[in-house]
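dude i think i finally got it to work??
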Amino acid sequence: MELQKHPKKSNSTLAELLMRVDDAHSDVSGNNTPADNRVVDVGFGSTSLPLSNPFVLSFTNLSYSVKVRKKWGKKVENSKVLLNNISGAAREESLKGSITLNGETLESKLLRVISAYVMQDDLLFPMLTVEETLMFSAEFRLPRSLSKKKKKARVQALIDQLGLRKAAQTVIGDEGHRGVSGGERRRVSIGTDIIHDPIVLFLDEPTSGLDSTSAFMVVKVLQRIAQSGSIVIMSIHQPSYRIMNLLDRLIFLSRGNTVYNGSPSSLPRFFAEFGHPIPENENKTEFALDLIRELEENSHGGTKALVEFNKQWQARRKPRTIITRKPNFSLKEAIIASISRGKLVSGATNESSLPDFANPFWIEIIVIAKRSITNSKRMPELFAIRLGAVLITGFILATMFWQLDDSPKGIQERLGFFAFAMSTTFYTCAEAIPVFLQEKYIFMRETAYNAYRRSSYVLAQSLISIPSLIILSITFAGTTFFSVGLAGGSAGFFFFFLTILASFWAGSSFVTFLSGIVPHVMLGFTIVVAILAYFLLFSGFFISKNRIPLYWLWFHYISLVKYPYEGVLRNEFDDPNKCFVRGVQMFDGSPLGTASEAMKLKLLESMSGVLGVNISGSTCVTTGKDLLVQQGISDISKWDCLWIIVGWGFFFRVLFYFTLLFGSKNKRR
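look at this
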């Protein structure tokens, strides 16, 4: 599309523009911060490299249908046609159109590298500023070979190009935090995807939800992007008259069929020849769309007549259509020329060396972690609520189970404390569900076009979670261990702390894995609560392993609560020299527990005579090892239990990676 009504047409790429801006900034202030709020002039300069439009993106006879979900009571699964034999083309400086590039088949791998896609929803981190959002995008999409200074200059120039200078230091915001306006958010979304100056830019309804002024400003920005040497293709509903004047080519679709393919200026002639002339003072686009809708709803044949008329009209105009024009360069030559002009900033020197990712693995991890930490630091209430929940729970447990003794009743109370404490660590991890679901679509957008590796995201999220888990573990262990009167001294406390930490790690990993599967927060919470309840049921507290039916025994071994529960029991009762039930204490909890001390001693004498073993009031009858056997505790050591918990955490992180690898891919065929 040739963009119209602009007196000055720039042949400079965004990269060339940025180099000039960088020089200007250095001249004025000696640093990377703009000296004033000047708007970048895109209408200057020339280059010795080829200036003609080297790219022609075309598609021929495209058809696409999707399966419609079955409704209750229906056995047949219907399909809905979205595209039906669609053809079209787009050149540089286009705002409409769409799968060959310069006549050559465009492979999906190359498409991801040279293009960008802006989703309809503004998927941004709410507590980052506009400048930070674009800077993090630059860190992802621009190569490590580009200096920090040039990256900052690129971001500053892009802010000016997008008209975001006044909002540069304002946070994006969300429902609970005031931030930039809707139009500014949309321009930031566009900026995050064009930071590397892609050759092809796709946009899904970029003006959706915006008022007319904001929508016009967004499309105006897209016009400048197209003038810098990119192919810009977007879907749009109900474009205003002013927006129409910025477009060169339109494709109208009706139930998957093309009903118009041409320039906005040809609309009156097209519909006049069809027998529905557009009134002189009528908005051309609104008239066309209203007519199409009227034909869809009221006409017996729908838009079939309009589809056939468009085919005939295109056939008559075919010698002059853009589809018949041959590109000036081959695909390889065009990409090399664009890279030479500073476009498609990826660290490549030619088309064959285009990397899949702009940065190495470890750089991606650092940038992802830094961005998450920056966003989280500005919402301290999230961690504070979780810390408060752990602290309150620990305080309640400490006061409820204050300084338990070693009596049979105290032993039962210790078992109850351990079961509740271990399960609590897992339940408090449920907060990870909304955290990832908020980032899920941001992640899908960024990884769809190779901003970073999925493995980098998983590792970064795992690493940044550890400090908070350590704080939570110290808080809970410090609040409960000494208050309850648990055994083992400092060594026992250290193991108890490690078990709590490992439980938080495994629970967080498990919930993170589930968050990669479930689509909604409430559904996620429901599943997590249910599964953790089952884990507690089969942990060995309510019913020992020896009494669990064989057909449910497998659930006992996969219970996440089992291993921390058994680990802390061994830490508490594994001392062979410690006695927990002596002589007359064996009657506690039975009907004989209310008998006098003398009566209990006489009963012990009688039992000694029968058993042939001397049992006095101080004889040890139950050791810690006996208690472990009674509880059906496995023979594995407490340290093995600890490592198994840690292993579960890594296992669920790996599963999380595979859910991202396969679950976040575009399922269209």
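The chain has a mean pLDDT of 80.
im so relieved honestly
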